[in-house]
């Protein structure tokens, strides 16, 4: 296993339970909560999270903003806004890659050693999972290979099927490196 591969892990479970330096939230441009992983993070963090989010003036698609984690075991939440899938011709791939890069830049700025990502845009925003997984793995691998921090990145998948896609993408990515 290469040094880069050793720094990227796949985990099956609920991201709100992870005691890591930062978890990433798949938010919307308002940053005021929603369903899916966003709803789960706000429920677990408590109302203080919404109060801090209200002071942030929203977030653009492809960008990210950082808050504290409040009642979560994670110290920080990095809120990023993935693109809504519109067929692939509206810059979705570049916007999704930007979500991963901006989130990692914010994590590095706070010296986060371990960061966990959900599968951004693959739920309500309907991004095809196989394509989103390739972008997630490619972008995170590139960042990790150029930066010492974060040391470890976890892809936190809600189900085993998604985790299998990540494992396959990591194998392909490692094979072509
Ligand atoms: N832990 C880990 N992964 C989860 C969890 C969890 N607790 N809950 C869901 N997932 P989605 P999006 C997975 O819809 O597509 C919200 O309303 C889920 O299986 O949460 O980026 C926001 O406010 C899926 O693979 O995010 C936005 O309006 C992945 O997380 C919109 O949804 C992302 O699904 C964002 O849509």
Provide keyphrases for this structure.
single chain; Leucine Aminopeptidase, subunit E, domain 1; 6-stranded mixed beta sheet; 6 strands; O-acetyl-ADP-ribose deacetylase activity
Task: Give an overview in words.
By secondary structure, the chain is α/β, with parallel strands linked by helices. It contains 6 helices and 6 strands. It has a single domain (10-174), classed as Leucine Aminopeptidase, subunit E, domain 1, CATH 3.40.220.10. 42% of the residues lie in helices and 18% in strands. It has helices spanning 3-6, 36-45, 47-54, 92-109, 129-146, 160-176, and strands at 8-12, 22-27, 64-68, 76-81, 114-117, 152-157. The mean pLDDT is 96. It binds ligand AR6. Ligand AR6 is lined by residues 14-16, 26-28, 34-38, 40, 82, 118-125, 156, 158, 162. GO terms for molecular function: O-acetyl-ADP-ribose deacetylase activity.
């Amino acid at each position: 296993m290469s040094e880069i591969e050793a720094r990227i892990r796949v985990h099956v479970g609920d991201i709100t339970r992870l005691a890591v330096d930062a978890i990433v939230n798949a938010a919307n441009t308002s940053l005021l909560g929603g369903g899916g992983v966003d709803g789960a993070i706000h429920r677990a963090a408590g109302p203080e999270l919404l109060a801090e989010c209200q002071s942030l003036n929203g977030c653009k698609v492809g960008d990210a903003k950082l808050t504290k984690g409040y009642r979560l075991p994670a110290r920080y939440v990095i809120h990023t806004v993935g693109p809504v899938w519109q067929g692939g011709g509206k810059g979705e791939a570049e916007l999704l890659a930007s979500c991963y890069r901006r989130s990692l830049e914010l994590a590095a700025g706070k010296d986060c050693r371990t960061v966990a990502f959900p599968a951004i845009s693959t739920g309500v925003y309907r991004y095809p999972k196989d394509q989103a997984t390739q972008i997630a793995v490619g972008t995170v691998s590139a960042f990790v290979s150029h930066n010492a921090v974060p040391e470890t990145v976890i892809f936190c998948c809600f189900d085993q099927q998604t985790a299998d896609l990540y494992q396959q993408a990591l194998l392909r990515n490692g094979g072509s490196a």
